[in-house]
Amino acid sequence: MKTYETINDILVHLFNEIWELEKNAIITEEFKDITNNDMHIIEAIGLTGKTTMSVVAKKMKITAGSLTTAMNALVNKKYVLRERGEKDRRVVYIWLTEKGQRAYRHHAKFHEQMTNAVIEELDETEIPVLLKTLRGLDTFFRSYSDNQDRS
């Protein structure tokens, strides 16, 4: 197989595999009532306290309407709390409940294990090469996304 085909095959396989593995790893008995997408919303809300719906929607690159639909389910399942702003009723504040914080930490643990598994396989000379490669991918995805948003 030529270099291009090999790299393409690996990238496509990796993205699909990570998505599937993550889904299986994070949706456990305790968190069986949410989806992988819900878990990423929980991740975007974070542990820093109150944030707004608009901040989370922007982080996730989705509309506030799409986030509202998912947020309704997360509130009903007691992962998230929300309230309207007192000064500006258009602003909706959201934050994780204790259950949501447990889900966040569970998800973060999977990411930590995945990252450590990669790092442990490398020696000190290989890490800069991997970082350069991943930064290149990151730059591509961000610029591609930005160009799609302008289309």
TrEMBL record:
Lineage, opening ranks: Bacteria, Bacillati, Bacillota, Clostridia, Lachnospirales
PANTHER family (UniProt xref): TRANSCRIPTIONAL REGULATOR, MARR, TRANSCRIPTIONAL REPRESSOR OF EMRAB OPERON
Cellular localisation: Cytoplasm
Any one GO MF annotation of this record: DNA-binding transcription factor activity
Listed name of the protein: HTH-type transcriptional regulator SarZ
Boundaries of every HTH marR-type domain copy: 1-139
Organism (species): [Ruminococcus] lactaris ATCC 29176
Gene Ontology CC: cytoplasm
Chief subcellular location: cytoplasm
Alphabetized UniProt keyword annotations: DNA-binding, Transcription, Transcription regulation
The family this protein is said to belong to: Belongs to the SarZ family.
Cross-referenced SUPFAM superfamilies: Winged helix' DNA-binding domain
